[in-house]
Amino acid sequence: MVEKVDVSLIHCGSREAIIGKKLVGSEYDVRLNVLGRFRNPMLYEISRGSGGSYHIIDTGNKENIEAVAEKCTNSDFVFIGNEAPIINGLADVLRMRGIQVIGPNKDFALEGDKNKTRILLEEIYSHANPRFYFIDPAKSQWEAMTGRAIKEMNGKVAIKPIEPKYGKGVIVEGYHFSSEQAYERALDTAKAGPFLIEEKIVGEE
After folding, report:
1. What CATH number should be reported for the domain holding residue 175?
2. Which pTM value belongs to this model?
3. Ordered alpha helix ranges (H), 140-180
4. CA–CA distance from 187 to each of 38, 78, 94, 147, 155 (Å)?
5. Using the 8-state DSSP alphabet, how is residue 86 labeled?
């Protein structure tokens, strides 16, 4: 007999659509329940076809964490597909309730702080780390440090806000600005808070 599994999938982007398709197409009899801030047509059809449900809720909003966890109460396990709920502590709340989770707790959400990620990589495998500078606009002399960092790398840099912007915050020389514009673009990024200036590396991600 095929084992029946009740799965809750958190978020509703293209990544989650593929995850949902794979789960329902597995060797198990999966009932897929989806929670996301909009109706993804593919996920909606997959979830309803599996006998599951589709809940419209902003899973990336920290204020909704308890409500999301409540809707997952009867799940055999929860698959968190997006980093925002992880950064906001959804996995922690689910595990406290005794619910099985695929996704790390908040303390291990590396995407929540790009500077901590770089520091960790430096400790573990520095050879894989690009040159990088942490810039905090709240500190004195930050503009001078910004200028020195950009000059050292001849303007061939990536500029990254520390906090996640979900694909819309990182800007790269040659794609979003010229090397001559790097300093000006770094000052623009500083308006939103601390950021990294990293050596631009060309190749597959």
Report:
1. 3.30.1490.20
2. 0.80
3. 142-152
4. 34, 41, 40, 10, 14
5. H
